[in-house]
Amino acid sequence: TPISNITHESILRCLFHHSVPHNLLYTKSTASYTTLLQSSIQNQRFNTPTTPKPFLIVSPTLESHVQATVNCSRNHGLQIRVRSGGHDYEGLSYVSHDPPFLVLDLHSLSSIRVDTNHGTAWVQAGATIGELYYRIAEKNKTAGFPAGLCPTLGIGGHLSGGGFGTMLRMYGLAADNIIDARLVNANGEILDRESMGEDFFWAVRGGGGASFGVILAYKIELVYVPPKVTVFTKSINLSQGATRVTSKWQRIAYKLDDRLFIRAVMQVVSDEKSSRTIQVGFESLFLGEKEELLALIGKSFPELGLKAEDCQEMSWIESVPYFAGYKNGESPSILLDRKPQFNLSYKAKSDFLTEPITELGWERIWQELLRGEEQATIVVDPYGGRMDEISESETPFPHRKGSLYNIQYLVGLGEGGAKGMKKHLDWIRSFYQFMASYVSKNPRAAYLNYRDLDLGSDRVGSTTYTKARVWGRRYFKSNFERLAMVKGKVDPGNFFRNEQSVPPLFPAY
Ligand code: FDA
To answer: Residue ranges of the FAD-binding PCMH-type domain (predicted)?
Structure first.
Protein backbone atom coordinates (compact mmCIF):
# COMPACT_ATOMS: atom_id res chain seq x y z
CA THR A 1 0.00 0.00 0.00
CA PRO A 2 1.68 3.28 -1.01
CA ILE A 3 1.43 5.97 1.61
CA SER A 4 -0.88 8.85 0.68
CA ASN A 5 0.63 12.29 0.06
CA ILE A 6 -1.44 13.69 2.89
CA THR A 7 -0.09 11.23 5.47
CA HIS A 8 3.42 11.67 4.09
CA GLU A 9 3.28 15.47 4.47
CA SER A 10 1.57 15.25 7.80
CA ILE A 11 4.13 12.92 9.39
CA LEU A 12 6.99 15.08 8.15
CA ARG A 13 5.23 18.13 9.63
CA CYS A 14 4.76 16.26 12.92
CA LEU A 15 8.47 15.42 13.06
CA PHE A 16 9.53 19.05 12.30
CA HIS A 17 7.07 20.22 14.91
CA HIS A 18 8.81 17.92 17.42
CA SER A 19 12.20 19.43 16.49
CA VAL A 20 13.59 16.66 14.31
CA PRO A 21 15.69 18.61 11.76
CA HIS A 22 15.23 18.13 7.99
CA ASN A 23 18.71 16.74 7.49
CA LEU A 24 17.88 13.67 9.62
CA LEU A 25 14.89 12.73 7.45
CA TYR A 26 15.45 10.73 4.26
CA THR A 27 12.57 10.27 1.84
CA LYS A 28 12.84 8.40 -1.45
CA SER A 29 13.59 11.73 -3.14
CA THR A 30 16.58 12.47 -0.86
CA ALA A 31 19.85 11.90 -2.76
CA SER A 32 21.45 9.79 -0.02
CA TYR A 33 18.32 7.72 0.80
CA THR A 34 19.59 4.58 -0.95
CA THR A 35 23.12 4.91 0.42
CA LEU A 36 21.76 5.16 3.96
CA LEU A 37 19.26 2.33 3.48
CA GLN A 38 21.94 0.01 2.10
CA SER A 39 24.67 1.09 4.57
CA SER A 40 24.09 -1.74 7.05
CA ILE A 41 22.12 -4.30 5.02
CA GLN A 42 23.91 -7.54 5.88
CA ASN A 43 21.85 -9.97 3.84
CA GLN A 44 21.73 -9.07 0.15
CA ARG A 45 18.62 -11.26 -0.15
CA PHE A 46 16.75 -8.18 1.11
CA ASN A 47 18.49 -5.64 -1.07
CA THR A 48 16.75 -6.10 -4.41
CA PRO A 49 14.57 -3.78 -6.52
CA THR A 50 11.45 -5.66 -5.38
CA THR A 51 12.26 -5.60 -1.63
CA PRO A 52 9.65 -3.36 0.10
CA LYS A 53 11.29 -0.06 1.04
CA PRO A 54 10.51 2.41 3.85
CA PHE A 55 8.87 5.65 2.69
CA LEU A 56 11.02 7.48 5.25
CA ILE A 57 14.23 6.84 7.17
CA VAL A 58 14.78 8.83 10.36
CA SER A 59 18.37 8.96 11.57
CA PRO A 60 18.19 10.40 15.11
CA THR A 61 21.13 12.09 16.79
CA LEU A 62 19.28 12.76 20.06
CA GLU A 63 17.06 10.61 22.25
CA SER A 64 14.28 13.19 21.81
CA HIS A 65 14.27 12.44 18.05
CA VAL A 66 13.44 8.82 18.87
CA GLN A 67 10.60 9.96 21.13
CA ALA A 68 9.27 12.22 18.36
CA THR A 69 9.40 9.40 15.81
CA VAL A 70 7.50 7.03 18.10
CA ASN A 71 4.86 9.67 18.92
CA CYS A 72 4.34 10.84 15.33
CA SER A 73 4.23 7.29 13.93
CA ARG A 74 1.81 6.09 16.59
CA ASN A 75 -0.49 9.07 16.07
CA HIS A 76 -0.54 8.37 12.33
CA GLY A 77 -1.07 4.62 12.80
CA LEU A 78 2.23 3.94 11.05
CA GLN A 79 4.49 0.99 11.54
CA ILE A 80 8.16 1.53 12.41
CA ARG A 81 11.19 -0.70 12.08
CA VAL A 82 14.17 -0.06 14.33
CA ARG A 83 17.63 -0.76 13.01
CA SER A 84 20.86 -0.80 14.99
CA GLY A 85 23.44 -2.97 13.17
CA GLY A 86 21.21 -4.35 10.38
CA HIS A 87 22.19 -8.02 10.91
CA ASP A 88 18.69 -9.42 11.19
CA TYR A 89 18.73 -12.70 9.20
CA GLU A 90 15.28 -11.95 7.75
CA GLY A 91 15.88 -8.22 7.28
CA LEU A 92 13.06 -7.26 9.67
CA SER A 93 14.88 -4.13 10.85
CA TYR A 94 14.54 -2.48 7.44
CA VAL A 95 11.87 -4.50 5.56
CA SER A 96 8.18 -4.92 6.29
CA HIS A 97 6.07 -7.24 4.19
CA ASP A 98 3.03 -5.06 5.02
CA PRO A 99 4.06 -1.53 4.01
CA PRO A 100 3.89 1.43 4.52
CA PHE A 101 6.54 1.72 7.22
CA LEU A 102 9.41 3.92 8.28
CA VAL A 103 12.86 2.95 9.49
CA LEU A 104 14.43 4.43 12.59
CA ASP A 105 18.13 3.97 11.92
CA LEU A 106 20.13 4.37 15.12
CA HIS A 107 23.66 4.34 13.73
CA SER A 108 24.37 7.89 14.99
CA LEU A 109 23.36 7.02 18.54
CA SER A 110 26.61 5.21 19.16
CA SER A 111 28.38 6.72 22.15
CA ILE A 112 30.21 4.44 24.59
CA ARG A 113 31.13 5.49 28.14
CA VAL A 114 33.41 3.03 29.92
CA ASP A 115 33.65 3.43 33.70
CA THR A 116 36.77 1.52 34.70
CA ASN A 117 36.34 2.33 38.39
CA HIS A 118 33.07 0.44 38.56
CA GLY A 119 33.77 -2.06 35.76
CA THR A 120 30.69 -0.97 33.82
CA ALA A 121 29.84 0.82 30.59
CA TRP A 122 26.88 2.62 29.05
CA VAL A 123 26.66 1.84 25.35
CA GLN A 124 24.12 3.33 22.96
CA ALA A 125 22.09 0.99 20.77
CA GLY A 126 23.59 2.16 17.47
CA ALA A 127 27.17 1.31 18.47
CA THR A 128 28.62 -1.94 17.18
CA ILE A 129 30.05 -4.64 19.42
CA GLY A 130 33.41 -4.13 17.66
CA GLU A 131 33.42 -0.51 18.80
CA LEU A 132 32.39 -1.58 22.29
CA TYR A 133 35.19 -4.20 22.57
CA TYR A 134 37.73 -1.66 21.29
CA ARG A 135 36.67 1.12 23.70
CA ILE A 136 36.75 -1.26 26.68
CA ALA A 137 40.26 -2.54 25.85
CA GLU A 138 41.47 1.02 25.24
CA LYS A 139 40.63 1.81 28.88
CA ASN A 140 41.50 -1.49 30.54
CA LYS A 141 43.49 -4.37 29.03
CA THR A 142 42.07 -6.89 31.46
CA ALA A 143 38.41 -6.08 30.87
CA GLY A 144 36.18 -7.42 28.11
CA PHE A 145 32.59 -8.24 27.28
CA PRO A 146 31.04 -11.61 26.33
CA ALA A 147 29.12 -10.99 23.10
CA GLY A 148 29.16 -12.16 19.47
CA LEU A 149 31.98 -12.72 17.01
CA CYS A 150 31.09 -10.43 14.13
CA PRO A 151 32.31 -6.90 15.01
CA THR A 152 29.58 -5.07 13.05
CA LEU A 153 26.70 -6.53 15.12
CA GLY A 154 24.57 -3.72 16.54
CA ILE A 155 24.10 -3.39 20.30
CA GLY A 156 20.32 -2.78 19.96
CA GLY A 157 19.44 -6.04 18.20
CA HIS A 158 22.25 -8.29 19.42
CA LEU A 159 21.98 -7.64 23.17
CA SER A 160 18.19 -7.47 23.26
CA GLY A 161 18.00 -10.91 21.59
CA GLY A 162 20.64 -12.66 23.77
CA GLY A 163 24.08 -12.50 22.12
CA PHE A 164 26.77 -15.12 22.52
CA GLY A 165 30.36 -15.60 21.51
CA THR A 166 33.68 -17.08 22.54
CA MET A 167 33.34 -16.25 26.26
CA LEU A 168 29.85 -17.71 26.74
CA ARG A 169 31.03 -20.76 28.68
CA MET A 170 32.77 -18.49 31.19
CA TYR A 171 30.37 -15.53 31.38
CA GLY A 172 27.08 -16.44 29.68
CA LEU A 173 25.26 -14.27 27.17
CA ALA A 174 25.70 -10.59 26.51
CA ALA A 175 22.13 -10.19 27.87
CA ASP A 176 23.15 -11.89 31.14
CA ASN A 177 25.58 -9.02 31.73
CA ILE A 178 23.14 -6.12 31.26
CA ILE A 179 22.47 -4.19 34.46
CA ASP A 180 20.38 -1.24 33.26
CA ALA A 181 18.68 0.01 30.10
CA ARG A 182 17.23 3.19 28.65
CA LEU A 183 14.40 2.84 26.18
CA VAL A 184 11.51 4.68 24.58
CA ASN A 185 8.17 2.97 25.22
CA ALA A 186 5.03 2.99 23.05
CA ASN A 187 3.89 6.24 24.76
CA GLY A 188 7.10 7.95 23.70
CA GLU A 189 8.45 8.11 27.26
CA ILE A 190 12.06 7.44 28.19
CA LEU A 191 12.36 4.75 30.87
CA ASP A 192 15.28 3.24 32.74
CA ARG A 193 15.42 0.04 34.78
CA GLU A 194 13.85 1.66 37.80
CA SER A 195 10.99 3.38 35.98
CA MET A 196 10.23 0.48 33.59
CA GLY A 197 10.09 -2.12 36.37
CA GLU A 198 11.62 -5.59 36.53
CA ASP A 199 9.19 -7.34 34.14
CA PHE A 200 9.86 -4.91 31.30
CA PHE A 201 13.61 -5.01 32.05
CA TRP A 202 13.48 -8.83 31.99
CA ALA A 203 11.85 -8.81 28.53
CA VAL A 204 14.53 -6.70 26.84
CA ARG A 205 17.34 -9.02 27.93
CA GLY A 206 16.71 -11.81 25.43
CA GLY A 207 13.10 -11.27 24.29
CA GLY A 208 14.19 -9.05 21.38
CA GLY A 209 13.81 -5.27 21.57
CA ALA A 210 11.56 -5.07 18.50
CA SER A 211 8.37 -6.18 20.30
CA PHE A 212 8.73 -3.88 23.30
CA GLY A 213 10.24 -0.47 22.60
CA VAL A 214 13.22 1.33 21.14
CA ILE A 215 16.33 0.51 23.13
CA LEU A 216 18.42 3.67 23.46
CA ALA A 217 21.29 2.26 25.51
CA TYR A 218 22.30 -0.54 27.82
CA LYS A 219 24.45 -0.41 30.93
CA ILE A 220 26.63 -3.49 31.03
CA GLU A 221 28.97 -5.12 33.47
CA LEU A 222 32.47 -5.71 32.11
CA VAL A 223 34.14 -9.06 32.72
CA TYR A 224 37.72 -9.97 33.60
CA VAL A 225 40.00 -11.21 30.82
CA PRO A 226 43.58 -12.31 31.52
CA PRO A 227 46.43 -10.29 29.97
CA LYS A 228 47.18 -13.22 27.65
CA VAL A 229 44.72 -15.56 25.95
CA THR A 230 45.44 -18.41 23.54
CA VAL A 231 43.72 -19.12 20.22
CA PHE A 232 43.91 -21.90 17.68
CA THR A 233 42.19 -23.10 14.53
CA LYS A 234 42.76 -26.69 13.55
CA SER A 235 41.08 -28.06 10.43
CA ILE A 236 40.60 -31.73 9.77
CA ASN A 237 38.87 -33.33 6.80
CA LEU A 238 37.24 -36.73 6.41
CA SER A 239 40.34 -38.57 5.22
CA GLN A 240 42.21 -37.27 8.28
CA GLY A 241 39.62 -38.72 10.66
CA ALA A 242 37.22 -35.79 11.05
CA THR A 243 34.32 -38.06 12.02
CA ARG A 244 36.08 -39.65 14.98
CA VAL A 245 37.51 -36.33 16.20
CA THR A 246 34.14 -34.57 15.83
CA SER A 247 32.37 -37.28 17.72
CA LYS A 248 34.89 -37.12 20.59
CA TRP A 249 34.72 -33.30 20.64
CA GLN A 250 30.92 -33.54 20.93
CA ARG A 251 31.17 -35.72 23.98
CA ILE A 252 33.40 -33.25 25.87
CA ALA A 253 33.26 -29.66 24.53
CA TYR A 254 30.32 -28.65 26.77
CA LYS A 255 32.00 -30.13 29.86
CA LEU A 256 35.50 -28.69 29.52
CA ASP A 257 37.07 -26.04 31.78
CA ASP A 258 34.78 -22.94 31.59
CA ARG A 259 37.69 -20.88 30.23
CA LEU A 260 37.93 -23.10 27.17
CA PHE A 261 35.63 -22.64 24.18
CA ILE A 262 36.05 -24.86 21.13
CA ARG A 263 33.50 -24.44 18.32
CA ALA A 264 33.32 -26.53 15.17
CA VAL A 265 32.75 -25.03 11.73
CA MET A 266 31.81 -27.72 9.21
CA GLN A 267 31.99 -27.03 5.51
CA VAL A 268 31.86 -28.80 2.20
CA VAL A 269 35.24 -28.21 0.48
CA SER A 270 37.17 -29.65 -2.45
CA ASP A 271 40.08 -31.94 -1.63
CA GLU A 272 43.37 -32.22 -3.57
CA LYS A 273 41.63 -34.44 -6.17
CA SER A 274 38.83 -31.85 -6.54
CA SER A 275 36.32 -34.21 -4.92
CA ARG A 276 33.84 -32.84 -2.44
CA THR A 277 34.66 -33.59 1.18
CA ILE A 278 33.84 -32.29 4.63
CA GLN A 279 36.23 -30.12 6.56
CA VAL A 280 35.75 -29.50 10.25
CA GLY A 281 37.53 -26.44 11.62
CA PHE A 282 37.95 -26.42 15.40
CA GLU A 283 38.23 -22.77 16.47
CA SER A 284 39.14 -22.09 20.04
CA LEU A 285 39.63 -19.36 22.61
CA PHE A 286 41.27 -20.21 25.91
CA LEU A 287 41.25 -17.56 28.64
CA GLY A 288 44.75 -18.49 29.75
CA GLU A 289 48.24 -19.25 28.50
CA LYS A 290 49.46 -21.78 25.92
CA GLU A 291 51.15 -24.19 28.30
CA GLU A 292 48.01 -24.68 30.35
CA LEU A 293 45.87 -25.06 27.22
CA LEU A 294 48.16 -27.75 25.80
CA ALA A 295 47.98 -29.64 29.08
CA LEU A 296 44.18 -29.40 29.17
CA ILE A 297 43.77 -30.58 25.58
CA GLY A 298 46.40 -33.30 26.03
CA LYS A 299 44.34 -34.67 28.91
CA SER A 300 40.79 -34.38 27.62
CA PHE A 301 41.04 -34.18 23.84
CA PRO A 302 44.31 -35.80 22.62
CA GLU A 303 42.54 -36.92 19.39
CA LEU A 304 42.81 -33.32 18.16
CA GLY A 305 46.60 -33.68 17.96
CA LEU A 306 47.09 -30.08 19.05
CA LYS A 307 50.72 -28.86 19.01
CA ALA A 308 52.37 -25.78 20.47
CA GLU A 309 52.86 -24.35 16.96
CA ASP A 310 49.09 -24.51 16.31
CA CYS A 311 48.50 -22.05 19.16
CA GLN A 312 48.96 -18.30 19.35
CA GLU A 313 49.08 -16.20 22.49
CA MET A 314 47.72 -12.69 22.26
CA SER A 315 45.71 -10.11 24.17
CA TRP A 316 41.95 -10.64 24.36
CA ILE A 317 41.31 -7.62 22.12
CA GLU A 318 43.62 -9.11 19.47
CA SER A 319 41.61 -12.33 19.61
CA VAL A 320 38.47 -10.44 18.54
CA PRO A 321 39.60 -9.73 14.92
CA TYR A 322 41.00 -13.29 14.83
CA PHE A 323 37.55 -14.80 15.46
CA ALA A 324 35.97 -12.31 13.05
CA GLY A 325 38.06 -13.95 10.33
CA TYR A 326 41.02 -11.54 10.25
CA LYS A 327 43.78 -14.09 10.72
CA ASN A 328 46.78 -12.02 9.56
CA GLY A 329 47.41 -10.15 12.77
CA GLU A 330 45.20 -7.18 11.75
CA SER A 331 45.20 -4.38 14.29
CA PRO A 332 42.22 -4.22 16.67
CA SER A 333 41.42 -0.79 15.17
CA ILE A 334 39.74 -2.77 12.36
CA LEU A 335 36.93 -3.26 14.89
CA LEU A 336 35.97 0.39 14.39
CA ASP A 337 35.11 -0.21 10.73
CA ARG A 338 31.31 -0.32 10.44
CA LYS A 339 31.21 -1.44 6.83
CA PRO A 340 29.55 -4.87 6.43
CA GLN A 341 32.30 -7.50 6.24
CA PHE A 342 30.37 -9.72 3.82
CA ASN A 343 28.25 -9.00 0.80
CA LEU A 344 26.28 -12.22 0.69
CA SER A 345 22.76 -13.41 0.14
CA TYR A 346 21.96 -16.27 2.52
CA LYS A 347 19.44 -18.25 4.53
CA ALA A 348 20.16 -19.56 8.02
CA LYS A 349 18.35 -21.80 10.51
CA SER A 350 19.19 -22.95 14.02
CA ASP A 351 18.80 -25.84 16.43
CA PHE A 352 19.90 -26.96 19.87
CA LEU A 353 21.36 -30.35 20.75
CA THR A 354 20.35 -31.97 24.00
CA GLU A 355 22.57 -34.98 23.48
CA PRO A 356 25.75 -35.54 21.51
CA ILE A 357 25.40 -37.00 18.00
CA THR A 358 27.02 -40.42 17.60
CA GLU A 359 29.80 -41.22 15.13
CA LEU A 360 27.25 -42.99 12.92
CA GLY A 361 25.04 -39.92 13.12
CA TRP A 362 27.87 -37.69 11.91
CA GLU A 363 28.55 -40.07 9.02
CA ARG A 364 24.92 -39.77 7.92
CA ILE A 365 25.06 -35.98 8.23
CA TRP A 366 28.20 -35.80 6.06
CA GLN A 367 26.53 -37.99 3.43
CA GLU A 368 23.51 -35.72 3.37
CA LEU A 369 25.73 -32.62 3.07
CA LEU A 370 27.75 -34.16 0.25
CA ARG A 371 24.74 -35.44 -1.70
CA GLY A 372 23.83 -32.17 -3.45
CA GLU A 373 25.94 -29.37 -4.83
CA GLU A 374 25.37 -26.91 -2.04
CA GLN A 375 28.19 -24.95 -0.37
CA ALA A 376 26.65 -25.22 3.08
CA THR A 377 28.21 -24.34 6.43
CA ILE A 378 27.26 -25.69 9.84
CA VAL A 379 28.51 -23.95 12.96
CA VAL A 380 28.26 -25.81 16.25
CA ASP A 381 28.86 -23.84 19.45
CA PRO A 382 29.26 -25.60 22.80
CA TYR A 383 27.31 -24.32 25.82
CA GLY A 384 27.69 -25.63 29.38
CA GLY A 385 29.79 -23.81 32.00
CA ARG A 386 28.16 -20.55 33.12
CA MET A 387 25.15 -21.25 30.86
CA ASP A 388 24.21 -24.20 33.12
CA GLU A 389 24.14 -22.03 36.23
CA ILE A 390 21.49 -19.59 34.98
CA SER A 391 17.90 -20.77 35.26
CA GLU A 392 15.65 -21.02 32.17
CA SER A 393 13.43 -18.22 33.44
CA GLU A 394 16.14 -15.80 34.59
CA THR A 395 15.95 -14.10 31.18
CA PRO A 396 13.67 -14.83 28.18
CA PHE A 397 16.52 -16.87 26.60
CA PRO A 398 15.65 -20.39 27.85
CA HIS A 399 18.41 -22.53 26.32
CA ARG A 400 20.38 -23.25 29.48
CA LYS A 401 21.29 -26.46 31.34
CA GLY A 402 20.66 -29.40 29.07
CA SER A 403 21.14 -27.39 25.86
CA LEU A 404 24.58 -28.76 25.08
CA TYR A 405 25.20 -27.14 21.70
CA ASN A 406 23.70 -24.52 19.43
CA ILE A 407 23.77 -25.41 15.75
CA GLN A 408 23.48 -22.98 12.91
CA TYR A 409 22.98 -24.00 9.27
CA LEU A 410 23.83 -21.53 6.53
CA VAL A 411 23.52 -21.67 2.80
CA GLY A 412 24.45 -19.06 0.18
CA LEU A 413 21.58 -18.03 -2.12
CA GLY A 414 23.57 -15.97 -4.58
CA GLU A 415 24.29 -18.52 -7.31
CA GLY A 416 21.92 -19.25 -10.18
CA GLY A 417 19.41 -16.39 -10.17
CA ALA A 418 15.80 -16.88 -9.04
CA LYS A 419 15.80 -20.59 -9.90
CA GLY A 420 19.02 -21.08 -7.96
CA MET A 421 17.60 -19.23 -4.97
CA LYS A 422 14.61 -21.58 -4.85
CA LYS A 423 16.89 -24.61 -5.10
CA HIS A 424 19.14 -23.40 -2.27
CA LEU A 425 16.14 -22.57 -0.08
CA ASP A 426 14.56 -25.98 -0.77
CA TRP A 427 17.85 -27.60 0.11
CA ILE A 428 18.31 -25.93 3.51
CA ARG A 429 14.67 -26.62 4.41
CA SER A 430 15.01 -30.29 3.58
CA PHE A 431 18.35 -30.51 5.40
CA TYR A 432 16.63 -29.02 8.44
CA GLN A 433 13.97 -31.74 8.22
CA PHE A 434 16.71 -34.34 7.96
CA MET A 435 18.31 -33.06 11.18
CA ALA A 436 15.08 -33.41 13.20
CA SER A 437 15.97 -36.74 14.78
CA TYR A 438 19.29 -35.44 16.17
CA VAL A 439 18.16 -32.22 17.83
CA SER A 440 15.93 -30.90 20.63
CA LYS A 441 12.24 -31.80 20.51
CA ASN A 442 8.95 -30.53 21.99
CA PRO A 443 9.66 -27.86 21.20
CA ARG A 444 12.35 -28.07 18.54
CA ALA A 445 14.17 -25.03 19.91
CA ALA A 446 15.66 -22.14 17.93
CA TYR A 447 17.66 -19.00 18.77
CA LEU A 448 15.83 -15.70 18.33
CA ASN A 449 18.91 -13.88 17.04
CA TYR A 450 19.16 -16.43 14.21
CA ARG A 451 15.71 -15.31 13.11
CA ASP A 452 13.91 -17.75 10.84
CA LEU A 453 10.52 -16.87 9.38
CA ASP A 454 10.05 -20.53 8.33
CA LEU A 455 9.18 -21.21 12.00
CA GLY A 456 5.99 -19.22 11.47
CA SER A 457 4.99 -15.64 10.84
CA ASP A 458 1.87 -13.61 10.33
CA ARG A 459 0.55 -10.44 8.76
CA VAL A 460 2.04 -7.58 10.71
CA GLY A 461 -0.09 -6.69 13.72
CA SER A 462 -2.80 -9.29 13.21
CA THR A 463 -1.33 -12.33 14.93
CA THR A 464 -2.99 -13.94 17.93
CA TYR A 465 -1.25 -15.35 21.00
CA THR A 466 -2.23 -18.89 19.99
CA LYS A 467 -0.75 -18.49 16.53
CA ALA A 468 2.41 -16.75 17.74
CA ARG A 469 2.92 -19.50 20.30
CA VAL A 470 3.96 -21.79 17.43
CA TRP A 471 7.20 -19.89 16.92
CA GLY A 472 7.26 -18.20 20.32
CA ARG A 473 7.71 -21.49 22.20
CA ARG A 474 10.57 -22.46 19.94
CA TYR A 475 12.50 -19.29 20.70
CA PHE A 476 11.44 -18.86 24.34
CA LYS A 477 9.91 -22.13 25.60
CA SER A 478 7.70 -21.42 28.65
CA ASN A 479 8.98 -17.83 28.87
CA PHE A 480 6.80 -16.97 25.88
CA GLU A 481 3.66 -16.53 27.96
CA ARG A 482 5.39 -14.13 30.35
CA LEU A 483 6.76 -12.16 27.37
CA ALA A 484 3.25 -11.84 25.92
CA MET A 485 1.90 -10.70 29.32
CA VAL A 486 4.66 -8.08 29.57
CA LYS A 487 3.78 -6.98 26.05
CA GLY A 488 0.11 -6.67 27.09
CA LYS A 489 1.16 -4.39 29.93
CA VAL A 490 3.72 -2.19 28.18
CA ASP A 491 2.35 -2.02 24.62
CA PRO A 492 -1.31 -3.08 24.70
CA GLY A 493 -1.97 -1.34 21.36
CA ASN A 494 0.75 -3.44 19.68
CA PHE A 495 2.60 -0.45 18.27
CA PHE A 496 5.94 -2.31 18.18
CA ARG A 497 5.20 -5.13 15.78
CA ASN A 498 6.64 -7.18 12.97
CA GLU A 499 6.02 -10.46 11.15
CA GLN A 500 7.22 -12.46 14.15
CA SER A 501 6.76 -10.14 17.11
CA VAL A 502 5.31 -11.06 20.51
CA PRO A 503 1.58 -10.19 20.56
CA PRO A 504 -0.03 -8.69 23.68
CA LEU A 505 -1.69 -11.09 26.11
CA PHE A 506 -4.06 -9.84 28.79
CA PRO A 507 -4.87 -11.53 32.09
CA ALA A 508 -8.26 -13.28 32.15
CA TYR A 509 -10.32 -11.68 34.93
P1 FDA B 1 19.23 -5.30 13.36
O2 FDA B 1 19.45 -3.83 13.40
O3 FDA B 1 18.92 -5.91 12.04
O4 FDA B 1 18.13 -5.68 14.42
C5 FDA B 1 17.72 -7.00 14.69
C6 FDA B 1 16.35 -6.99 15.36
O7 FDA B 1 16.38 -6.21 16.54
C8 FDA B 1 15.26 -6.36 14.50
O9 FDA B 1 14.03 -6.95 14.82
C10 FDA B 1 15.26 -4.92 14.95
O11 FDA B 1 14.07 -4.21 14.69
C12 FDA B 1 15.53 -5.07 16.42
N13 FDA B 1 16.25 -3.91 16.95
C14 FDA B 1 17.45 -3.43 16.53
N15 FDA B 1 17.81 -2.38 17.26
C16 FDA B 1 16.84 -2.18 18.16
C17 FDA B 1 16.66 -1.22 19.19
N18 FDA B 1 17.55 -0.28 19.43
N19 FDA B 1 15.53 -1.28 19.92
C20 FDA B 1 14.60 -2.24 19.68
N21 FDA B 1 14.73 -3.17 18.72
C22 FDA B 1 15.84 -3.14 17.97
N23 FDA B 1 24.54 -13.74 17.05
C24 FDA B 1 25.22 -14.18 18.13
O25 FDA B 1 24.63 -14.38 19.19
N26 FDA B 1 26.56 -14.42 18.06
C27 FDA B 1 27.28 -14.20 16.93
O28 FDA B 1 28.49 -14.40 16.92
C29 FDA B 1 26.57 -13.73 15.78
N30 FDA B 1 27.24 -13.52 14.60
C31 FDA B 1 26.56 -13.02 13.50
C32 FDA B 1 27.26 -12.75 12.32
C33 FDA B 1 26.60 -12.23 11.21
C34 FDA B 1 27.37 -11.94 9.94
C35 FDA B 1 25.20 -12.00 11.29
C36 FDA B 1 24.46 -11.44 10.09
C37 FDA B 1 24.50 -12.26 12.46
C38 FDA B 1 25.16 -12.77 13.58
N39 FDA B 1 24.49 -13.02 14.78
C40 FDA B 1 25.19 -13.49 15.87
C41 FDA B 1 23.04 -12.76 14.90
C42 FDA B 1 22.79 -11.39 15.55
O43 FDA B 1 22.94 -11.50 16.95
C44 FDA B 1 21.36 -10.88 15.25
O45 FDA B 1 21.18 -10.76 13.88
C46 FDA B 1 21.09 -9.54 15.97
O47 FDA B 1 19.71 -9.34 16.06
C48 FDA B 1 21.73 -8.39 15.24
O49 FDA B 1 21.51 -7.17 15.84
P50 FDA B 1 21.64 -5.85 14.94
O51 FDA B 1 21.36 -4.67 15.79
O52 FDA B 1 22.93 -5.88 14.18
O53 FDA B 1 20.51 -6.10 13.86
So the answer is: 50-225
